[in-house]
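Progress report, Aim 2. The chain analyzed during this reporting quarter is listed below.
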Amino acid sequence: MITFFIFCSIIFLIYVFFYKQSISDYTLLQLEFSQIEKLQELLLDNAPVIIKNCEIPHCVKKESLLSVPRFTNIFLGSCRLGDYLEKKKCELQIPNELQIFLANETGLQSYITHNWLPKLHTNPLSQYISSIESKLSFGSYQLQKTTAIWSIILPIESRYICSLVNPKYSEALPPRWKALQDLESVKNLNYIDVIVKPGTMLLLPAHWYFLLKAEETGGYFTYIEYHQPVSMLNSYLEKKV
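Predicted structure tokens for the chain:
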């Protein structure tokens, strides 16, 4: 029994070690959706990946949401979802629970689980220890830190400017970095901007920082997190800090 416990502990420590690894530059890997069978190989490089010409789930397209009154009447802050989609100005206040609720109720979560979860597995054990969670998110994101094995952004309406900070340069961030709405004011910070448009998917490894800005009113996107036990534990600990 002790030998088994020691063996499991060693395996877990190796697992944590690889979870903590990240590349030290801004290499971005690109792939056409027609070449999706190569994705698992690219994921092993632990670098951000851009997948072009992805299908946008029909269940969360603008016309689909506008056709369902129980969705359009949900308040996103100072306006209803229907008003926001019609590009009316809105002071957004959207709790995390509502983003998850919309993903579940629209069918987005089922779509992501069926179509994308298997594509993210990189070893034989992945299918047994992995989980995936999707959100339907609106507007822009302040600076965030990824904790999932892979965090995925897929714009549905509006192009987005995604500012990326490699973990190597995180020491240049201010102590209250979570309140940042732009990175231009941060001195000596090395970051890059990536334009992500509807149908283009951006996959980010764990520990990266990103900030999302919608170029148009009415913009929204799907945010997906692919987890394994070590990343779920880290996510829990990060929220407690």
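Confidence is low (pLDDT under 50) at residues 3-21. The longest helix spans residues 2-20. These observations will guide the mutagenesis work planned for the next reporting period.
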